[in-house]
Amino acid sequence: MYKFRPATDRIKFMHKLIRDRVIQTDSERALITTQSYKKNEHVVPIIKRPLATYDVCARMTVRVEDFEIIVGNKAKNFLGSGTNPEWGGAGWIPSEVENGNWTLWDDGLYHNPEGEELKLTIAPEDLEALNSIREYWKDRTVTTTANAWQPDGYEELCRLNVSSYLPGSPLMMIPVGHLTPGFEKIINVGYKAIRKQAQDWMDDHIGNLMGEDMDKYMFYKSAVIACDAATIMVKRYGQECLDKAEKCKDEKRKDELLKMGEGLMWISENPARNFWEACQGTMMYQLFLAVDAGYPAMAFGRFDQYTWPFLKSDLEAGTITMDEAQEIVDAFFLKANCFYGAAPGFIAQTTGIGNTYQHTTIGGVNRETGEDATNPITFMVLETIGRLKLHDPTISLRINKKTPNELWECALETSKLVGGLPLFQNDEVIMAGLINELDFELKDARDYSVIGCQEIVGSGNDYPAPNGVHAPHASVHYGGIFDMAINNGINPFNGEASTLKTGYLYEMKNFEDVKAAVRAMSSYILKLFVTINNYTEYLTMYHCTHAALSISMEGCMESGKDCVCGGAKYNSYGGTATGLATIADSLTTIKYMVFDKKLCTAKELYDAVMANWEGYEVLQQKILSEVPHFGNDDPYADEQMKWICDTYYDICKECYSTRSKVYKSGLYGASDHVAQGYHTWATPDGRKTGEALADAASPAQGRDLNGPTSVLNSSTCFDHTRYMGGMAINLRIHPAALNGEFGIAKLRDLTKQFFEEGGMEVQYNVVSSETMRAAQEDPQAYRDLVVRIAGYSAYFVELNTDCQNDIIRRTENAI
């Protein structure tokens, strides 16, 4: 059995601070950004944006806590949160205070309601400061610009309420993100060399800018400003360490601070020289991106691969011990947990409290040789997650045919401690998919990483926008689409009618007519949806260029083109179709009940669905108990899952944009299956209005009755290499099944067999229904219970009741 080593006292102390966090929002970034935008009011966005970032980096508060060995704060306070006025103006908190939802406590701070799981505060002076910039930003945010005008079709898409474009919601609410930045380039090349590349090009073209040269000049100028901004920020952290060292009485800590200060001064311009500098340099660049624009889902990528050469060199030189290295890894991921910011309650419940989406990928193969790339840091990352019971960042473990058994054991022991982590990703399937679907070179396919929930991307060379051009606009709601398809284009949830008319279920003469209606409505809605994505891409190329990100992305500095304009080596975008098992089961129900067994008429089934099963409970129970369901290794049911997944993929292949010829299909979705269920009418599989859809690519909750092998066999009924947006298959395993080495070996072999048969991904919740019900009764006693929802893990007691019950409803498997 794999044994986890204990954490050091200061790591335990920092962990407790994070676990007990109360996030205080401040106005610092907002005020500096506003002043910068006023100063550069009429400067074009490609220059104005990095100038604002420079001003923030030069003036923001830098903090070095007494217990820290990896530093970097994204706001003024420890565990604090700033705001991005260029997107949201004064933000959402001032209106919460005005509406009386937040109240002033005796500690002098405004607090959000006591019943909310996420604890938030703001000081009166910061509230006043945010209110002071309201008028300036009223008509100047990116969101305002995007909301001012939309192409034809947008109004229909919103009112139908079958996608993440909803009435009244912002068209562009956050920057484009969801990728793996070029951390390896930053720590191996350094900002000074990147800046020189840009400056040299400009120097060679002074007074001689012809044709596309002007576009390149504007990009390189923005890159120079971005490099200067990063350098000044990192230097300021170095100086803060040195200043604290001067006052420090503890000689050991003083020496540590001096080394940290000197190291930060060095990496402010130059490549990292050792393991600590590699880790700190990675974190500094991540902080720089957070300060620049608050990009969503900036994944850390293959952390164990790009930091291992530095640790290997240190170990060979005798300048570090394994225990010291482990503490650095612990500190790194605890610092990553500090990047979570304030969010409204409804967003926190969908995206997960404490989830930063800094997905980290470990294991896999060497990009040059294709051989297994497991190294000591691979284990260290799992140790950090397991022994500290961290639900974030999400960890993906890449599996290949030569993954050592010791790593399997460590990973599955981690899953027992931390539900759903790591995610197991199949190298053979994913690398083949990247080559076939996205034209990746072999070495780049070998170097893939996973971001966000499950999205598959290149490492530092890919601008993939897999969660929509402007997240969170990736989701088309197939439950609602299905209902519209059998209801002549009318959404029964709100009565809104589509332009496309498909007829009513009871008018369809055979099962092929049903499938034709579903395909037609799916194509109509998805193409409407992608059209709006393409419009936001058009806006992004002018209003939202990303110099800070582009300096690290392979292809951008070489081509002189920002990543949002197609400068990266690889380009794609895409979305997700969570809950297709609900659609598959609905199709199977119609085929079985109406056309094959003739146990009811199409009109009877239609009426039952439209009545939300009220008065049709006998028919509902017959469907639930008799009709075959996806997830039981039954070809009759699996045939429909294959059809709907293939149909979704085929429609995606018909979509493209200026920047990208590929719109990727994905089968993942945070906890979106629960949120979608709230506004999806009843479906023919027996599901009632408001109930959750199936999560991600998993079977519908409680419908898989034949054990995990059957679930995994069913899951390979369609070709996983097509779904390069990513995939999530959740299985819940009773903890008793993993007692002892035999249980661990059985789950390892089950996973291996699934991968050999073409499975892409699987994640395990090792938790019993009994434990989760006990946690509902006594949350404090189960405070560190971690579970996997679909696209993120969470502390069970911080989930809303619907999400908790959704997990409990999932089948509890033995192996």
TrEMBL record:
Assigned GO CC terms: cytosol
Residue ranges of every copy of the Glycine radical domain listed in the record: 695-815
Domain PFL: 9-688
Gene3D superfamilies given in the database record: 3.20.70.20
Keyword Glycosyltransferase found: no
PROSITE patterns reported for this sequence: GLY_RADICAL_1, GLY_RADICAL_2, PFL
PANTHER family: DEHYDRATASE YBIW-RELATED, FORMATE ACETYLTRANSFERASE 3-RELATED
Record carries keyword Lyase: yes
Organism, scientific name: Alkalibaculum sporogenes
Positions bearing Glycine radical: G791
Keywords, comma-separated and alphabetical: Lyase, Organic radical
SUPFAM superfamilies from the UniProt entry: PFL-like glycyl radical enzymes
Protein name, per record: Uncharacterized protein
One Gene Ontology molecular-function label: lyase activity
Domain of life of the source: Bacteria
Taxonomic lineage: Bacteria, Bacillati, Bacillota, Clostridia, Eubacteriales
